[in-house]
Amino acid sequence: MGRKEREERRKEQAKLRRRAEKHMGKRSSQETREIDDLEARIAAGAPPPGTNPLALDAPAAGSGAYAGARTFEELPLSAATRAALKQAKFTQLTAIQRAALPHALAGRDVLGAAKTGSGKTLCFLIPGGWSQISWGPAHSSGSGGARGPLVELLFRRRWGKLDGLGALVLTPTRELAMQIFDELVKVGRRHEISAGLLIGGKKVSEEATRVASLNVLIATPGRLLQHMDETPGFDASGLQMLVLDEADRILDLGFAATLDAIIANLPRARQTLLFSATQTKSVRDLARLSLDHPDNHMVGPQQNRPGHSWTGPGK
Ligand SMILES: Nc1ncnc2c1ncn2[C@@H]1O[C@H](COP(=O)(O)OP(=O)(O)OP(=O)(O)O)[C@@H](O)[C@H]1O
């Protein structure tokens, strides 16, 4: 390449860099305004702890309160998440979503009574929050700019690719993990986060190569503990959110000791969402171990006051 060509190339690269910086600056100031607005709406409108949003027919008019919301539009969600929900044709909240999302969005721990098929997956996928991520099983190279829906928390915290593991979802079976992953892709397609599955069926070493670069892990407990023990560079020290999905089934499958070991390795300052169809003694023990003041955080259609026992909701 001659001197003139090199000079032209250098100028072209400088032009592209200036354009990218301008775009990033614009984007980040728009994002900052949006995040500030969401934080303000949540601070002003969050339901008091321990109250049941299902007891309300609608949000109190003119108050800024969002408990009682019946549609996703009424909740303080980022524009990217609202657009993805619309694209997936999700408009009305199911009962468990009406009960859990207002508290979860406010950053509170949640102990949710939710049966299979009640729509609980969106209760935990939405409250997180991200930016800049790619998607794919930990054992694949799958990617493709999307911003995820455990989205809101990490989005508001400006979580990015270099921030490491931000959210962990534990679920009893591979099939459930894959369903959750599909749902995450659906509602997170406009955010950019890296999400992966740790579910076995592949060599641990294959999963291990990508694990350190993922922001969201959806995992079965045995496989996750194996990575915690064996994968160099596995680091959960920045974890913002832990989700225990179908906790009663996880315990029925004999994973109590595995869960205890996982939780002992996670930072305490995090948000935890625990969903279970039944409230057995072992679920209550797990709630005590993993949640901050679990009695204040029970949600579900049967919930009327803190400490009230619950049963699973229908749709
Ligand atoms: N608000 C909603 N509007 C319309 N469809 C929804 C809504 N929330 C969830 N769904 C759909 O309902 C189905 C069941 O939801 P989901 O998988 O969250 O239930 P679940 O309680 O997690 O059950 P599972 O235990 O099988 O995962 C999914 O296909 C999901 O896409």
From TrEMBL:
PANTHER family with a match to the protein in the record: RNA HELICASE (PTHR24031)
Domain DEAD-box RNA helicase Q: from-to ranges: 70-98
Documented EC number(s): 3.6.4.13
Keywords: ATP-binding, Helicase, Hydrolase, Nucleotide-binding, RNA-binding
Enzyme class: hydrolase
Family, as annotated: Belongs to the DEAD box helicase family.
Listed Basic residues bias regions: 16-26
Gene Ontology MF term list: ATP binding; hydrolase activity; RNA binding; RNA helicase activity
Domain of life: Eukaryota
UniProt remark on domains: The Q motif is unique to and characteristic of the DEAD box family of RNA helicases and controls ATP binding and hydrolysis.
Motif (Q motif): 70-98
Any one Pfam family match given in the protein's UniProt record, by short name: DEAD
Organism: Monoraphidium neglectum
Role: RNA helicase.
Domain Helicase ATP-binding: residue ranges: 101-297
Compositional bias annotation for Basic and acidic residues: 1-15
InterPro entries registered for this protein in UniProt: DEAD/DEAH_box_helicase_dom, Helicase_ATP-bd, P-loop_NTPase, RNA-helicase_DEAD-box_CS, RNA_helicase_DEAD_Q_motif
Annotated TM spans: none
Region described as Disordered: 1-35, 292-315
Catalysis: reaction(s): ATP + H2O = ADP + phosphate + H(+)
Protein name: ATP-dependent RNA helicase
Keyword Amino-acid biosynthesis: no
